[in-house]
């Protein structure tokens, strides 16, 4: 196989189990649609429990040899995978745009971002250290070593179809775990393409297995893993209700869990902020992927002294954003993923307006472009009673809440069961210290809207979940500690 592929060469329609591309045992398939047009791009396997079990069987067979492989050999496979992803960044970026809808520049950006995790964990694979514990008794030696937890089940969402799965598979393989995965039903093609490149990179049969399924069949298929005692870990990115369900269902076999769940990120602009920087930071963090990002600011709190001015500055920039399908090279915001997403956005805006919010920009569907487009929107006079205050909108909507003092801003920001990302803009060094400690969130952006990095620990607190992806901490979720106590040494 040539290593540089065209988009069509990257499309796979079958499951990948034990190193082979196989149809679902039932022979069933379901269609993947382009959210920009509603057209079916490809039919992929609609898997059931039988396929999930076959994947787990393969992962169990492959585990001992992969666990015992030299770390540097696992690293070499991951480095080759990284290089192949980079060589095919353009085609992968186009595939992401095709099935997920984001503009090509963002699709390609996601490829580079996902690849950075593969490289990071390829390097980390060779740095999994244990400890020699200071001696406690004569004649006894105590050591702690790290070992892979076993088979990992990875379940991923549609908003970053490459990055979300790459940053689960890479640390799992680096740690010596084997993987069974299921991507979101809206965007399985990118994950299949990634697995194709992993196969070419030399990932041994059974070490990485991927099945696809419609939402209906995903539930029993994933349940087969949840109840399988050989599967030792679930790593999931998605909604909080599904995360809680996975935790409940896997409790019987006490699996290790990493749950990267919903957010409801606050973004606070204080009177003393650099307003230009705050607008730029808000645009970067809010409109990435059209607002369909779990770290997207959902509630923007602006102090009364700069409220109107900030609203005007923001509305000007937002009104200039170009909404278009990914095929338009100038597109900055694409279609939303599906009808369910666009209905929720419209419901939130309608509810806010009914409760007194004023529209400064946008506020409507863009039906001329297609059924899944919504104009980027700025709303003034948002209140905590509005739906968009308590639910994650997951779209290009910026509601501006007014506040008077710092304590009120922190209280409002924390008034949510979620705690993933948070952001604030201020130039007062003491305030920066207070607010960065006061916000209940796993991630805090201080005068910065772009926080993502493979070198940083990504994850939440409260009902945004637990576990961290990326950074030196990211491998811990895939490792357990074995304590060795050796006696009779004197
Ligand atoms: P979203 O609302 O963004 O689609 P979900 O949490 O519903 O987020 O989905 C994230 C991932 O979890 C997808 O791969 C989806 O197929 C999967 N999923 C959703 N519900 C279940 C379930 N009950 N059991 C197993 N997997 C599920």
UniProtKB/TrEMBL annotation:
SUPFAM superfamilies: ALDH-like (SSF53720). Residues 21-482 form the Aldehyde dehydrogenase domain. It comes from Caballeronia arvi. Keywords: Oxidoreductase. InterPro entries: Ald_DH/histidinol_DH, Ald_DH_C, Ald_DH_CS_GLU, Ald_DH_N, Aldehyde_DH_dom, Aldehyde_DH_Superfamily. PANTHER family: SUCCINATE-SEMIALDEHYDE DEHYDROGENASE, MITOCHONDRIAL. GO terms for biological process: gamma-aminobutyric acid catabolic process. The active site is at residue 260. Pfam families: Aldedh. The lineage of its organism: Bacteria, Pseudomonadati, Pseudomonadota, Betaproteobacteria, Burkholderiales. CDD domains: ALDH_F5_SSADH_GabD (cd07103). Belongs to the aldehyde dehydrogenase family. The keyword Oxidoreductase applies. One of its GO terms (molecular function) is succinate-semialdehyde dehydrogenase (NAD+) activity. This is Succinate-semialdehyde dehydrogenase (NAD(P)(+)). The keyword ATP-binding does not apply.
């Amino acid at each position: 196989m040539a290593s540089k592929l065209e988009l069509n060469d990257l499309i796979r329609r079958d499951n990948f189990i034990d190193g082979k591309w196989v149809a679902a045992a039932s022979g069933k398939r379901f269609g993947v649609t382009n959210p920009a047009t509603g057209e079916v791009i490809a039919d992929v396997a609609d898997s059931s429990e039988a396929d999930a079990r076959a994947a787990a069987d393969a992962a169990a067979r492959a585990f001992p040899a992969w666990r015992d492989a030299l770390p540097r050999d696992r690293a070499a496979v991951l480095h080759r995978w990284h290089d192949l992803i980079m060589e095919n960044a353009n085609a992968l970026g186009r595939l992401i745009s095709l099935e997920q809808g984001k503009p090509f520049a963002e699709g390609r950006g996601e490829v580079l971002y996902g690849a950075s995790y593969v490289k990071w964990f390829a390097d980390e694979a060779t740095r999994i250290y244990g400890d020699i514990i200071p001696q406690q008794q004569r004649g006894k030696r105590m050591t702690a070593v790290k070992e892979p937890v076993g088979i990992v089940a990875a379940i991923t969402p549609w908003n970053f179809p490459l990055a979300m799965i790459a940053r689960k598979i890479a640390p799992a393989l680096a740690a010596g775990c084997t993987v069974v995965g299921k991507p979101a039903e809206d965007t399985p093609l990118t994950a299949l393409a990634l697995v194709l490149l992993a196969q070419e990179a030399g990932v041994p049969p059974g070490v990485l297995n991927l099945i696809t399924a419609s939402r209906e069949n995903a539930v029993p298929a994933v349940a087969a893993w949840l109840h399988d005692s050989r599967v030792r870990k679930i790593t999931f990115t998605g909604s909080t209700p599904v995360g809680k369900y996975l935790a409940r269902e896997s409790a019987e076999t006490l699996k290790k869990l990493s749950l990267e769940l919903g957010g409801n990120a606050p973004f606070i602009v204080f009177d003393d902020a650099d307003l230009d920087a705050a607008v730029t930071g808000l645009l970067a963090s809010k409109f990435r992927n059209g607002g369909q990002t779990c770290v997207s600011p959902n509630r923007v709190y602006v102090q009364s002294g700069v409220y109107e001015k900030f609203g005007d500055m923001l509305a000007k920039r937002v009104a200039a954003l170009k909404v278009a399908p990914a095929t338009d090279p100038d597109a900055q915001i694409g279609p939303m993923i599906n009808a369910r997403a666009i209905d929720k956005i419209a419901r939130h805006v309608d509810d806010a307006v009914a409760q007194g919010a004023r529209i400064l920009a946008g506020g409507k569907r863009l039906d001329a472009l297609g059924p899944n487009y919504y104009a980027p929107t700025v709303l003034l006079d948002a209140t905590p009673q509005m739906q968009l205050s308590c639910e994650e909108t997951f779209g290009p909507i910026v509601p501006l809440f007014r506040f008077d003092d710092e304590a009120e801003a922190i209280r409002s920001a924390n008034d949510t069961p979620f705690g993933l990302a948070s952001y604030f803009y201020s130039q007062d060094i003491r305030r920066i210290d207070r607010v960065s400690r006061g916000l209940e969130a796993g991630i805090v952006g201080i005068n910065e809207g772009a926080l993502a990095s493979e070198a940083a620990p990504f994850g939440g607190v409260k009902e945004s979940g637990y576990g961290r992806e990326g950074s030196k901490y990211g491998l811990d979720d895939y490792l357990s500690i074995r304590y060795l106590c050796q006696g009779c040494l004197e």
